[in-house]
Amino acid sequence: MQNRQWRLSRRPEPDEVISPQNFDFVTAPTETPKDGQVLVRTLVLGTSPAQRGYVSTTRSMHEKLPVGAVMRGRGVGVVVESRHAAFKPGDIMTASLGWQDYAVITPTTETLSILNISKVANPVRPLSLHLGLLGGAGATAYFGLLDVGQAKAGDTVVISAAAGGVGALAGQVAKRMGCRVIGICGSAAKCDWITRDLKFDAAINYKTENVDARLTELCPKGLNVFFDNVGGDILNTTLDHLANRARVVICGYISTDYATGPQVGPANYKNLLRNRSRMEGFYIFDYVPRWHEAEDKLRSWFEAGAIDPVEDIDHGLENMPDTLASLFKGTNRGVKLNRVAPDP
Amino acid sequence: MQNRQWRLSRRPEPDEVISPQNFDFVTAPTETPKDGQVLVRTLVLGTSPAQRGYVSTTRSMHEKLPVGAVMRGRGVGVVVESRHAAFKPGDIMTASLGWQDYAVITPTTETLSILNISKVANPVRPLSLHLGLLGGAGATAYFGLLDVGQAKAGDTVVISAAAGGVGALAGQVAKRMGCRVIGICGSAAKCDWITRDLKFDAAINYKTENVDARLTELCPKGLNVFFDNVGGDILNTTLDHLANRARVVICGYISTDYATGPQVGPANYKNLLRNRSRMEGFYIFDYVPRWHEAEDKLRSWFEAGAIDPVEDIDHGLENMPDTLASLFKGTNRGVKLNRVAPDP
Predict the structure, then answer these.
(1) Which chain A residues have a beta carbon less than 8 Å from that of B264?
(2) Most buried by CB count within 10 Å: which residue of A87, A222, B4, B290?
């Protein structure tokens, strides 16, 4: 079998949006699994802002991908050949399959983990759900909001990048918990979508509205939780609207991913003292032992029709660099995925 | 009796160090207490960076003092005349006595509180201790370090303004809890003092040493708690040395109190995500219900000779503006106080 692959050819410059020009699209023979390995057909690939860190020259907490290697990325796939006792053909699994049609995966006691290599014991269709609502995006939204952010009924919750995958899920979780939810996003169409379809209480278009003035209007008593995906000016402005004992959840800072030169921090961090508040980052890998809490809850909401999995799906492995780039261009709406092959 | 008073005459400019030129030193007749009031002789006056906020034109979470009014400030005093059933002459109390020899105080159910008007049930000599180790400074150090900072045995704790009142007490509390303690301060003499006399494990002179390089050397595995009193560059640099799950306690930001123009925030706040860490402000008034925890512990350490109350005492009400100014000039060493009259 032929295996199409995207291989890193040139690292993006710090201010360069990732694009097909950073990769070579090649066709190679499919590897044969050895003892203890499985061969997996890629069905759907996910995206994460962290993936830019794999390839960029800038500092990242992730291991750098060598030039020439197949681009790293999580996916859901189906086992087509197994030389591992715990897997058989037809099993559904999630793993870092990489940007390719077929991957040879080596499950071991070290690598078998919900966020590394994992068999999906009880698959839900479409299988893409295991990369979004029931995968890292859903768990990030759930634990970020409820564990780090300690959101509870009656709280006013503000979410940036609210039309992104994590933001759109976090807002819906907050609504399910009885919070008042305000989303900040970058177009009128996204504002309409999160308020009309996802039932956010209000939306702020940061490109056309004064975020500071709108937060004053929408949060006269201050906000209790800010779930921040963007950093930069929006973080700084929002820090001026904290209620006492507010929780600022640092989930990401995508607005500064292309910043060059000296970076500016949030001068309004001083309000953490004035409002006895907290700003805290988290790392979804730390929640692996509690994963089932999020998955069970999100799955039950999904099965009851009480949460929209907000999937935004491109089709075709050949489009994968553009699929990832959309996160940085802000053109996605919800969990950005690429459907490589139909569910079996 | 004649009552000497410092009255606010002119608010300091944003970049002006507070000085006697902001006040008039006047002599007025002592007021007579009415029913429900007590007349208190000021014995010792305390200082706090927050006092600049009372009089400056810049934003503050405290009520502004009107021009012409007696400068506000906490003190310990002795009741000389009482028309309140719960107080009698000779009682020791702490209250906002103001910068004057005699104050008329009105204890009510609303104002009787450990951080407002309070009778010292069980006085310790010298009575100045009730403004420092057993007052706000001690409680701020104690709860900031142990409750907000969650410092525990084996932790590496970094403290800025380590030779200030709160810093020098926090460092000693951390040592008592079994932490490794590194202080950052602004002179070789202060570095000597905190390491030799207060038994900090190490000190960094930020005026002559590279803080970043020294932290790398002293905290090869990162720090677990940063107790920050200064903000600015030191906060930003220290945020680059967090261990995972570190706690950054925002107690103050005195380095930026005179900053004019646009303020710069800590760009390294991003490490809160990279290191799944937390930055949190607190307000000592929130700890009033738990006050006895700090006071009992600090008192028992003091009585056992296990903690130095680090009092730095000026003498004479006439010097009070300079006493306060020393906090901003960094010339104090420990809890800065002014002895107005001898303990009775």
Answers:
(1) 264-265, 267
(2) A87
